[in-house]
Task: structure prediction
Amino acid sequence: MLNILLPGAGHIFWRDYLFGIFVLSIALLAAALFFVCLVIALPTVVKIVLLGLPLVFWLFTFADLRRTMHRRALATSRSPNTATAYLLVALIFQAAAPVAPLNFGLRNRPHGFLASGSSLAPLLRDGDPALAAAFPYFVNVFFLERPIWHKLPSPGDLVRFSGDDGQVRIGVVLGREGERVSVVDGSVTGDGSFSFDKVGGRLRLQGNMPLTAVEPGSILVATLNLGAVDRAYQVPIGRLIGKVYRLF
Result:
């Protein structure tokens, strides 16, 4: 458990200090490489190598830790209070350290909400529990004030966003910056590069929208009224909250 929460802590607990510190150093290096891969565009093969080798090494440490436990347990006594103290430190590390997976997950956790109204039925009905997850599009890291985008929303995605008036809404992405989009009898077409007439494979679109150019740095999102296009919003990507998923 210690080796899961804080790599190297299991070895340090059994007084194998040198190797425990070495394992912790490799884990911190792997965390640094992970953030480098987020900031710098690297080939997929390079990312696999940079992040895969530390992972393989970490898995190997469990076998070594098992041998250490059997070897040191006969000569070294560790009290339950000491074990509790080590576990507490490992938990604090996961929750508070910006390089820890738990802290990263909390920083990028999805936001839960209850759907209001049934304008998106059958995708979302009034009172349905749902999540708005930013991770499909961007991540927040501790050393940058702005999120790191790794993918723009695709036409047809159901997203949650904040409007100019500060009100939070849910809508369907119709297009991205630089594209010209129109809706004719429920069929969405963007510069001839994409076309769709359903959202989530279940909600068939209706209505019309004149040819509209998507502004730079924005996405075009339409709110719906029982499947019909109600209003289109030019949403700056900074106001996007996340992709919407219904829980059940």
